[in-house]
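Hi F.,

I've been meaning to write this up properly since the lab meeting, where we talked about keeping a consistent format for the predictions we share between groups. The idea is simple: the sequence comes first, exactly as it goes in, then the structure tokens exactly as they come out, then a line or two of notes. No screenshots and no reformatting. I'm using this chain as the first example so we have something concrete to point to.
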Amino acid sequence: MSVAMRRFDWAPDISGSEGPLFEAIARCIADDIDDGRLSIGDHLPTQRALARRMGLDVTTVARGYAEAARIGLIEARVGAGTFVRGGRRNESQPSRRADLADRSMNQPPDVQEPGLLDQMRASVNDVGQSLPQLLRYQPSGGVSQDKSAATDWLTRRGILVDQHALLITAGAHAAISATLSVVMNRGDAMACEAITYPGLRKIANTLGVTLCGLPADEQGIDPQSLIDAARRKHIRVLYLNPTLRNPTTETIPVARRAELVDVARRFGITIIEDDAYGFLPVNPPPAFAMLAPELTYYIAGLAKCLGPGLRIAYLLTPTEGGIERIADSLRAVSVMASPLMSALASHWIESGLADAILASIRAESRARRRLLAKSIPSQWVSSSEYAFHAWIQTPEFLRRERVVDWTRGYALGAVASDEFCVGIEPPEAFRLCLGGAASREDTARALDALADLFQSAGV
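Output, unedited:
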């Protein structure tokens, strides 16, 4: 079959397909590339022509093409049309991984600057000089060189590490799991915001810990609600994501932090501070680890400020917090953090590259937030200057499930409020991630389309 025939006659066979139709179209493109029915350079039908041929609306086909483009199968060329990119790999060429990023996870924008990307690639080669050693087992809490770099990094957040014991962990999730397995017993109660990090719910369920969701305002958890819960439910632990909270983006101010510390001291409550986003603001409030070092297990993950693929987090335990038990728990949960990734993170910190990456993420996050402000009326949006996610309420007659399903054909990730709620009825809202693999241009297109959806609901 000629390329011209492929251009005008090709149509995906989605009969019997389950799930959204746009996903079926993308799968068919992938299957036809694998089977040789589509080849690199083939010119696909226009969205409108394919929609007519299949009896679908143009939006469904557009979303199918967008999904196929997202994973690297096709590309749109301005003024020319849509062409096949993917195909059977020439074995003489090095392989490249397709973009299979999980859009449901909250992640920073990719670094875009060519010069900075070149430095990051070169750093991988630098670290690779020690590859044999980095492929061996290492102590589960990390080696001294990586701890030294971690200490350097934490000083940027105003953390005095000598007041704590430091462990290198395989990401914040592992750090939270290991800590809770030591400081809590099955059936114990832990307080958190009623709208909180969804990973906490999964960890608590696995450990048999009872979560108590507490009401919060724009300044964080109401201290009186924590007092009441401590009296009625014997709260053992308070989990906080206090800076640019996931998903609602607010930051607990210093005065409210001090009030919560007072309550924790009064009732002997241990604090787990998940400071995932704490490095993003230029001048964040002081960490709970500095306000109450004797009570606080502090977790500084690198996922949101450098990149989730590192899977590295720094865990500070109170000096008398049983560091050996935490280290044993980490060993049971994940054996060790990846020495290769830990060494790469240390190299970035020591060379100053980590600061450049963080500055790039900050700048791009602010630019995307400005795009959001232009697209969606402010009364529906909760966001913050350095956040790369937003909490968006859905207008009347536009349910959250519909909006989340609608966004799947675009480069942005949306998660309905149901995933975040503890002990309350989920509101009509969703978290929108403005980062990840989406370029700024992809982000602008997706936000424009989301604005059209809101306008169709009469907003």
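Notes:
Residues 1-8, 87-95 have pLDDT under 50 and may be disordered.
Residues 22 and 64 are 4 Å apart (CA to CA).

If this format works for you, I'll send the rest the same way.

G.
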